[in-house]
Model the fold of this input.
Amino acid sequence: MDGSSATVETTGTTTTRQAPKIKVRAMGFPFREAGIPRHWFMGSPHLTHLSNALQLLFPAGEQFFIRSVKHYEKQIDDPELRARIRGFYGQEGRHGHEHERFFKVLEEQGYELESFLAWYQDLAFGKLEKRVSPAMRLAITAALEHFTAAMGRNALTSDFLDEAHPIIGDLMRWHAAEEIEHKSVAFDVFMAVDGRYHVRVIGLFAALAGLTRFWAEGTKHFLREEAKMGTDLKAAAKAARENPRLQLERKRRAEMFRNAVLEYLRPSFHPDDVDDYELARSYLASIGRLDG
Ligand SMILES: [Fe+2]
Ligand SMILES: [Fe+2]
Done:
């Protein structure tokens, strides 16, 4: 089997880590040709914009992850981890690229993105990033990677994305699978160069606060844009509240975040404790992209 393997102790039981080799895949999703409607997720503006807003955070966020790891790259001697770091840069770069290609479609649909992106990038990376130590930036990155892997697992184990426009469903599933593939890279770098538990925990809560704030602001931005287009948001919100499928998914998401926080707080936690590499592998195999 491809990848690194190490036997580790986790809460009294012994498991075998099997981080896969990280392959970079150029996807080139046909967003423009696909005729994606404005409300591409269950016809719901709220659900669509929750997802659109998350996507707005990715490209600049992923560049931050790359910078955070790059700062310490020279201190890493292990050739296997160095190879995974390179794969991680490549995958995150491709994710940002594909989401930015989708942004063009959103702009063609009439949404203004620039003012939100300028505000988010200036606050998160122009101001906050500069005030935080390199170790804390890496801890925040490791925590955000833990969340993206948890969201990825959620995406690949639920049939919820079947309700999305198929091309966006494909985009999200591909991103989900690769987040699982490289989920332990930033964590392993953090443990190799710092590893202090309290830094890891502060990074977790800073990551949670940042993600929550910027995701909420992005969603509000889209809903303001939607209101300008004359959409009846009150009726849409009522429909969303009363939709049992959406209620279930909301519950599932809240539970997923709660569990992700709790497992990360365990002092002996390692991302490979959660056995989901096979989940990513089988999805990538199903689209014929397991090997790149
Ligand atoms: Fe990513
Ligand atoms: Fe990632």
